[in-house]
Inverse folding.
């Protein structure tokens, strides 16, 4: 049988509420960049929250976001040690799905084709990046993390984030080429 909650449990809950709960949105954004799908990202955040709750007594109250992102990164590493990578992807299923209740896409056929072409080429360009470059590109450019937050999530210095991001952007630009970039701007 577990003992009734004591003053330490109340203090831990209060600290969790103050330091951890406001950062859940950021944790989810970062986890989505790290995980292969939303369900895995949510599982990663949940496990991170459990570990943070258990460790509240060791947290000094300084830099809660960096502390939580470090727990998230370490949790992700630990979870991947025990897991084999997924080999099947359901992107095609999502692309071929019909909208619910007969809703129609209001874009022109030309816009739809251009968007699909650009999207496919952009996805290929991002997929061609190494994991370090792809992760920093997704964290900063897609999930709007600051360089400092991305550095904490990845466990690297801020300068490394800036360098990797610059290289990732240049590689994506080279992969897309000038015709795709111009076409993407015009559509």
């Amino acid at each position: 049988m577990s003992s009734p909650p004591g003053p330490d449990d109340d203090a831990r809950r209060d600290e969790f509420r103050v330091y951890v709960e406001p950062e859940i949105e950021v944790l989810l954004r970062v986890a989505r960049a790290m995980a292969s799908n939303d369900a895995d990202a949510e599982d990663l955040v949940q496990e991170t929250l459990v570990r943070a709750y258990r460790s509240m007594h060791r947290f000094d109250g300084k830099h809660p976001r960096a502390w939580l992102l470090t727990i998230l990164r370490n949790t992700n590493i630990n979870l991947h040690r025990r897991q084999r990578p997924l080999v099947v992807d359901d992107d095609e299923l999502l692309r071929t799905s019909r909208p619910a209740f007969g809703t129609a896409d209001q874009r022109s056929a030309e816009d739809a084709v251009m968007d699909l072409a650009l999207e496919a080429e952009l996805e290929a360009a991002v997929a061609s990046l190494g994991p370090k470059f792809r992760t920093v590109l997704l964290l900063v450019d897609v999930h709007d993390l600051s360089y400092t937050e991305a550095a904490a999530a990845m466990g690297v210095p801020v300068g490394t984030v800036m360098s990797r991001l610059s290289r990732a952007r240049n590689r994506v630009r080279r992969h897309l080429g000038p015709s795709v970039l111009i076409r993407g701007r015009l559509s």
